[in-house]
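UDP-N-acetylmuramoyl-tripeptide--D-alanyl-D-alanine ligase
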Amino acid sequence: MIPMTLNEIAQVVGASLHDVRDPQAPVTAPSAVDSREVAPGGLFVATGGANVDGHDYAAGAIAGGAVAVLASRPVGVPALVVEDVQLAIGLLARHLLEHINPTVIGLTGSVGKTTTKDLLAQVLERHAATVATDRSFNNELGLPLTVLRADATTRYLVLEMGAGRKGDLTYLTGLAPPQVGLVLNVGTAHAERMGGRLADVAEAKGELVEALPADGFALLNADDPYVLGMAGRTRARILLYGRSAKAQVRAEDVRMDDRARTAFELVTPSGRAQVELDLLGEHQVSNALAAAAVATALGLGVAEIADGLNAARRRSAGRLEIVERPDGITVVNDAYNANPESMRAGLRAAKALAGTRRTVAVLGAMGQQADASRARHAEMGRLVADLRFDVLIAVGAGDPLAMAWAAASSNQGVAVHTVEDVAGAIKLATALLEPGDVVFVKASSEIGLGACARALAGA
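Predicted structure tokens:
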């Protein structure tokens, strides 16, 4: 954050000052929407929600060191009051960008955004000052909060951009116009909100490349036909990545070790180098190639990119997070979110990690799958059986029951159990697990199965 006085911020966002003793008081730290995360000298952004109203926490934020609150009404403590808090924080972020002018890198996709963002940040920060999206703060509030963490020293700003519906990326790229745009894939995430068809998802994701300037770069996944089809929607220079032979940034000689970690030869226009990822699953190759493609477009050499990927570690919780218990049980926590593509990749990665060990899958619902939801859950049940998982615990009513039925009907020998909720999953899994097991936990975030994974890991 570049230092700004409350009066300066008020002029940028069109705010009126309430209960402010010193309009020249400087804001010197980033902003936050969680009052517990406000740094001394920062701004607390009070937002309303279905269950929690940030305005109720304004006094606590000030007591914790916030200079003021960005709010939609007076709150009895120093506040910048605006009509629309979301619009105001976006205006402030855009103002900051115009003054520091970093290279803005936007990335989107149905799966893999956060892992790719974390990999890319770890490659770029070895080269120059880099700010990247924290966790998955990729929406209309999270993106400007990320921008406001940048300052005059920031050279690369890596922004994960989520799209729950058409128009979302147009809005986000308006706040932070990217010079580089990366599209990972087109899958069924948010299908319900976008019309249910992959073509509709592709239309929404392609808004990112439409926002790029002619002298920018569009990094497109050559292995995904929907992404490849976006080439005609951008003025920017195009660089293809993937395992396809036509990709300028590609992987050759892909192999996996006995811990399900992947290695490959990275090929870029500047040469070749060996990459050995410290991440679970073969699907991580595509994420690593995406990060490498961005770095290539920014002028980094293949050796520097490979060094960054080799040194990279998992940064975000709940994404194929592995915990080894003292009794030999391995918990694979992939419960941050779920859709068919990520569920498929996670199940395969866990099975590869297990080798000949006994495997248990604790699975809940995948949200936003529209009319195809029941069929897609049944598909996951069949995959559990086809991969020869020993045990399936399906959590919740509705679609998870379709998953359980499909697995039980497969005649592959999987022992299928159903439970009503997370508490039931914890109780049953704890009772069923045996020393040496590998247990894989996954569902959409609203199901709350992360609590199950954490309970099992800490047992």
